[in-house]
Amino acid sequence: MAWNEPGNQGKDPWGNRGGKDQGPPDLDEVFRKISSRFGGGNQFSGLGAGLVLLGLVLIWAFSGFYKIEEAERGVKLRFGQFHELVEPGLKWKPTFVDTVYPVNIQRVNRLTASGMMLTQDENVVRVEMEVQYRISDPRKYLYSVTSPDQSLSEAMDSALRYVIGHTTMDNILTVGRDKVRRDTWDELEGIIESYDMGLVVVDVAFKEARPPEEVKPAFDDAIAAQEDEERYVQEATAYSRQVEPQARGQAERMLQEADAYKRRVVLEAEGEVARFAQLLPQYEAAPDVTRERLYLETMEQVFSKTTKVMVDNDGGSMFYLPLDKIIQNQSGSAVQQPKMAEPTPSQTRPVRNDFDESRSSRTDRTRQGRN
Asked: Of 99, 57, 106, whose CA–CA distance to 76 is shortest?
């Protein structure tokens, strides 16, 4: 039977008899009873309250210690308003007064923007681009905009669509990829600068650009043709760079040879002039002797360069000595010497007499000139 049912005359849980007083006991009365058992009321209650208060103070003091990592900066709020930025290290703050939010400013975050976009020449292309960024100002990152990462993603998509809409499809797929990347980067920085989100763009990567699957084979052929054209241009450029220095060197060599030939001819002419200038006094002293000597020296130079010697014997017939055949036979056979037909006295005598006569007449004229 429950303690509060009719007919129950026992005690209730709070010490009431007969069930007439069914309310809970007074807490003050309970504390007085406990303190009376320990030998005093007011003294014990004051000591207990002090211990409790001291414990709460210690818990509050120890709860204020916190640590900011090396790559982080802390944003401290005091009563909900920005107070200061906290540098890395072990710090302390008054709990329930200050609140600190750590923000990593060295980590590089990544966001991707992609989708089917319309180009300037009214073609559809699928483009995917990735932006890498980090936090430069923790305060602005937390409180300038509601969601800075989402705002950056939307700004990236807007900048990419703007650049793709002002670029032809051929440039997007081939040679204009780097320009699209740089233009997107510049456009994105211009957008986030007005938002003042405390973010800085580290890099923008052009990951993928491809046409729709229905026309992809045709675009692959066009890209292959453009790559072949670029390769041919590079090969032609390399060939021109190889041939042009050789041609320049050959032209320079020809110029140097021509200059050397000119100098040689000029020097030889000057030497001939000097030689004739030296012969003039001798010619004036003995003209006949000088003419004879010049004639003999000239004939000596002429005959020294030929392999055939013509001999006139004043008899109406002329013969020659085949010196080239003789020299060839001598060099071709080292063991067997070629036999030469000795000239007849009638053939050799006129040559010897003419030489003797010319020598004797030259000697006489030389003596006359000296006298």
From this structure: 99
Q: What is the pLDDT of residue 131?
A: 93
When divided into structural domains, the chain yields a total of 4
Q: Sheet harboring 72-78: ordered strands across?
A: 81-86, 72-78, 98-104
**Amino acid identity at 314:** D
Q: Are 167 and 176 in contact (CB under 8 A)?
A: yes
Q: Hey, how many other C-beta atoms are within 10 angstroms of the C-beta on 135?
A: 21
> Would you state the structure tokens that stand for residue 114, as one six-digit string?
């992609």
Task: Of 324, 319, 323, give the one whose Cα is nearest residue 346.
Answer: 319
pLDDT at 346 over 50: no
CA dihedral sign, ordered 221, 227, 228, 229: positive
Angstrom distance (rounded) from CA 201 to CA 110: 10
Is there a contact between 100 and 91 (Cβ–Cβ < 8 Å)?
Answer: yes
Q: What is the Cα–Cα distance from 317 to 108, expressed in whole angstroms?
A: 111
Alpha-helical regions (H) of the chain: 27-37, 42-62, 138-143, 148-165, 169-173, 177-195, 216-285, 287-303, 323-332, 345-370
235 lies in some domain: no
3-state secondary structure 97-145: CEEEEEEECCCCEEEEEEEEEECCCCCEEEEEEEEEEEECCHHHHHHCC
Q: Does residue 15 sit within a domain?
A: yes
- CA dist., res. 147 & res. 195, Å (int): 11
Question: Domain range for residue 74?
Answer: 65-104
Three-state secondary-structure class, residue 195: helix
Query: Residue 276 carries which DSSP code?
Result: H
**CB within 8 A of 180, min separation 6: which ones?**
163, 164, 167, 171, 172, 206, 209
Round to whole Å and give the CA distance between 317 and 332. Answer: 32
Q: The pTM is what?
A: 0.48
User: What is the amino acid identity at position 21?
Assistant: D
In a domain, 83, yes or no: yes
Rounded to the nearest 10 degrees, the angle between the axes of helix 345-370 and helix 287-303 is 140
Has residue 240 been placed in a domain? no
DSSP at 344: P
**pLDDT tens digits, one per residue of 94-135:** 888 888 999 999 999 999 988 888 888 888 888 999 999 999
